[in-house]
Amino acid sequence: MNALEMMKTYSLDKLCDLWDLTENMNGPEIPTVRGWLMDEIERRNPEGFDAWLDQDAPEDKDLRRYVLN
């Protein structure tokens, strides 16, 4: 199972945990992984995800609050 398939099996809470975990990572693959996480989180809760993005300056730490409400 590849990483994208695995993400589909994770809970939304687990996806947010992974988002938080990658916040301070700097490897060359991190932007891709974070993009995959955002895509899956948005798929699960498009309204919450959009509300987070609609903030003047969305903070990574606030994503969980918007998508897990």
Folded structure, characterized:
Helix 3 packs across helix 4. With 69 residues, the chain is mainly α. The chain is built from 5 helices and no strands. The chain starts with a helix and ends with a helix.
How would you describe the shape? globular
Q: Count up the helices.
A: 5
Q: What is the helix content?
A: 55-70%
Alpha-carbon distance between the two ends: 30 Å
Largest sheet entry: none
Number of strands: 0
The percent range for strand residues is under 5%
Rg for CA atoms: 12 Å
| Low-pLDDT runs | none
Assembly level:
single chain
Offer a few descriptive terms.
single chain, 69 residues, mainly alpha, 67% helix, 0% strand
How are the elements arranged and paired?
Blueprint lengths: L2 H7 L2 H11 L7 H15 L1 H8 L9 H5 L2
Helix pairs in contact: 2-3, 3-4
Short description:
This protein is mainly alpha-helical and 69 residues long. Helix content is 67%, strand content 0%.
